[in-house]
Amino acid sequence: MIFHGYGLMVGIAIVVGWSVAEKIEPKVNKAVPGVLLLGFMGARLYHVIDMWGYYNRNLGQILAVWNGGLSIWGAIIGGVLGLWIYFKGDSLKVMAAAVTGLPLAQAIGRIGNGINGEFVQKVGILPWWGAEAILDLMLFGAMWSLRGQSSKVRVGVCLVGYALIRLVLQPYRG
């Protein structure tokens, strides 16, 4: 069996992120199977669409997740869809709990990118996975401090905050 450090870190990230969400809203646990399944499917689908030039010529690789290729944006979209399907009208409150732990989970996942040697710098000497992990931890601090705010504010701050992190760092990632 091949040990993949990134896979281990993603597993840890899911457990830690979900634990934070559960502390805020215990009923989030009811949706775990659906959120994980749709999050994984969304992560792969987003990657395949993003890299369609390759997959269009290599259709047999679309399901070959063991060769790499997942997207955090696809995972977020799939996970949100899973929460929405399960909780219907009460989904915003549960999503607000889930996004509180999301930046912490993302920081842990970026450490996994570092273990894999991914996202080496295009510019300068900074390991960009590390820079993103630090910014993700800062966003987690902000999210934790906003626990008493409305669900809409918390979801909005997380999505806008993470989008800004990626917007700033994307040009430098290898």
| Uncertain segments | none
How would you describe the shape? Answer: globular
SSE string: HHHHHHH
Mean pLDDT: 88
Question: Structural class of the helix and strand makeup?
Answer: mainly alpha
Helix content class: over 70%
Q: Distance between the terminal alpha carbons, to the nearest Å?
A: 29 Å
Number of domains: 1
Number of alpha- plus pi-helical segments: 7
The number of strands is: 0
Radius of gyration: 16 Å
Biggest β-sheet strands, sense, barrel: none
Strand content: under 5%
Describe it.
The protein has 174 residues and is an all-alpha fold. Helix content is 70%, strand content 0%. The chain is built from seven helices and no strands. The relative contact order is 0.14.
Summarize the structure.
It is built from seven helices and no strands. It has 174 residues and is an all-alpha fold.
